[in-house]
Structure prediction request, 532 residues.
Amino acid sequence: MRGPGGVPSRLVASPSAGALREDRERGAYYARRVRALRVEVWSDIACPWCYVGKRRLEAAIARMPAPADVEVVWRAFELDPSAPRAQSPGTSYAERLARKYGTSVAEADAMIERMTAVGAADGLSFRFDSVKPGNTFDAHRVLHLALERGAQAAVKERLLRAYMSEGESIGDPEVLAGLAAEAGLDPDDVRRVLAGDAPAQDVRADEAAARRLGIQGVPFFLVGGVHGGSGAQPGEVLYQVLAKAWAEASPRAIPDGAVCGPDGCC
Amino acid sequence: MRGPGGVPSRLVASPSAGALREDRERGAYYARRVRALRVEVWSDIACPWCYVGKRRLEAAIARMPAPADVEVVWRAFELDPSAPRAQSPGTSYAERLARKYGTSVAEADAMIERMTAVGAADGLSFRFDSVKPGNTFDAHRVLHLALERGAQAAVKERLLRAYMSEGESIGDPEVLAGLAAEAGLDPDDVRRVLAGDAPAQDVRADEAAARRLGIQGVPFFLVGGVHGGSGAQPGEVLYQVLAKAWAEASPRAIPDGAVCGPDGCC
Prediction:
């Protein structure tokens, strides 16, 4: 795979995040000239703009000189932490939307149509007619397990599709185990984790960080630890930010000065 | 203390390196708008340009908006790893220099005079007449202990002064224990560490990183993990590099896009 710079993306090995961190500690990060850029995205599952933002981010990363060296971490954000694990909709999505915004059902239908068209433009098939509202806390716990297992990207994608396009009840632990298995996790591993408390603190920590960041809406992108902002921006905006952060992460030479070497001080 | 930007340097608490690292992991680094810049310097003790470079770096850091948020880590580099722990000079510094460079003693004396003048211009009193050559491996082990104890800056300064200005034998473990104690370490702690093997691997890891960086002479500065180069540059050069790296480490906003929030997707 080649980006616009014509640099083969696999020319350099992509080290693990842990190895990278350790190397950074000793400057070897600079020495190897392997550059890596971390993008953290706070987002939810029950969130059409998060799915759109994911597609646009992926498109922006694909335009980078070495897409494999852009590391994406999905952070937890619950739009409705008080939602019951699963609920029978009873009413249609348009009716629920109309109640929330105080509009007519016809107006809500128009909003849904617009959002569906936005998704379609990015290749997504939103099926608001079949969406099953539910709590996403356990989904975020599974995403943290997936992060540990190196399968977070696949699991995030699977859960978004299940919720937004397939009418799956992603608050149901058994549904989660099945979806995570399709994305490469061991379903028993998922069941064990969901029965316990382990990754709950990781989800809470993401959410605490979101509060410190002042995040009001998602997706929220944090690129290279310093470029941050909310929203499913056009791909071009995300690409420009990635390119800038990438340049800043590139090794650059300080003009030489006088040194002492093995043969003396010159 | 105020830098040229007029920003009080203590306005923001300076968190521990560990806390900072953990916060960075979750984007809280961005949220708090506490910026920190790491400068790694590979250098030796028996190295006049390293001492000059240290003074110039300190002066450059003092000009930064928040000097307390610039973290300096001293990395090990041995200019002469095969040097005996201690040796009786026998000959004068000028004679040793003349032999090394194949010059006359008078020419070597002139070099020493120039280096002495360079040091004096930065407030350093080089006493080449009293320098006691020796091995610096143990000094680097003590510096790694000092790094763990949060006293590395003080110990580095004390060892450089002892070697370059006071004619101390810094290859001698007892001398090292005494000097480190003056700089705030527990001398028994130093003796215990020098009797064992513990920080040797840290020294070796610094040196391995130096090889990967292609370092031929010291000091070598690595600023923010990406700006790297050898030599005791003029303070202005170092300041410009610090200022650039600092700007790159500052939080910046991505233009807003469409989001989902607690009240819906707008």
Observations:
- The CA atoms of residues 47 and 230 of chain A lie 13 Å apart.
